[in-house]
Amino acid sequence: MSRIVRPRVFVTRQLPGEALGRLGGEVDLRVWEGELPPSRNELLAEAAHAEGLVTLLTDRVDAELLARAPGLRAVSNVAVGYDNIDVRACTDRRIPVGNTPGVLTETTADFAFALLMGLSRRVAEADAFVRAGKWRTWSPTLLLGTDIHGATLGIVGLGAIGAAVARRARGFGMRVLYVSRQPRKDLEAELGARRVDKRTLLAESDVVSLHVPLSAETRHWLGRAELAAMKPGALLVNTARGGVVDQDALIEALREGRLGGAALDVMDPEPLPADSPLMTLPNVLLAPHIASASHATRGRMASMAVDNLLAALEGRRPPHCVNPELFP
Ligand code: NAP
Question: The domain 105-286 is classified under which CATH number: 3.60.150.10, 3.50.50.60, 3.40.50.1820, 3.40.50.720?
Answer without folding.
Answer: 3.40.50.720
